[in-house]
Amino acid sequence: MSEAHSLGSGLSWSDVISRRLFEAGCTLSVLPMCGLRPANVRVAWPEIMADADPDWISALPDDSGRMPRPTAKAIARMDEALGWLALIDDDRMNWRRAICLRLVVHPISHRHRWAWRAVGRKLGVDHKTAQSWHERGVSAITKKIACPAFSSSQIPQKAIEEFI
Q1: What is the DSSP letter of 71?
Q2: What share of the chain is helix, strand, coil (3-state, %, to 5)?
Q3: Do residues 106 and 113 touch, judged by C-beta distance below 8 A?
Q4: 66 φ, ψ to 5°?
Q5: Vertex 126, ends 22 and 138: CA angle to 5°?
Q6: What does the alpha-carbon distance between residue 82 and residue 24 come to, in Å, rounded to a whole number?
Q7: Residues of the chain with pLDDT > 70: what percent?
Q8: Where is each DUF6362 domain found (predicted)?
Q9: What is the dihedral of CA 134, 136, 141, 142, to 10 degrees?
Q10: How does pLDDT run across 65-121, given as a tens digit for each residue?
Q11: CA nearest neighbour of 22 among 98, 81, 75, 95
């Protein structure tokens, strides 16, 4: 790996890639799920309330129960990190599946919804093998990103500096 760029605080490139993938999973989990599919014909104008009762409006529940929507910057970082999954070769599809299953996190607690044993059952292997596939997948991504022949727009130096 390239040692020209210092990661600081004992982090390796694989650690940073793993954290960015986890961050992408967290961002993905709080994206709104409604309105993602084509809907019926509708008007884009908002509904107008001609005679609104102020007591009724103040009695509406607040939005504190909802997770805040991610910022455009967070979504861009998520898109970049999820794009890294395509760097895993097609003959290593199990590595990619292990990473994708671990990307699914709870939007509030940020805990993985798929424990390692569940990932192993889903993939039909032991949980230690699933962990190994995850680590190898992250390692494959890391090697391809740190390669100098790779496109400079996809090298994560800027992203790493923002993360650290």
Answers
A1: P
A2: 55, 0, 40
A3: yes
A4: -90, 150
A5: 30
A6: 7
A7: 62
A8: 36-141
A9: 110
A10: 567 788 899 999 999 999 999 999 889 999 999 999 999 988 888 898 999 999 999
A11: 81
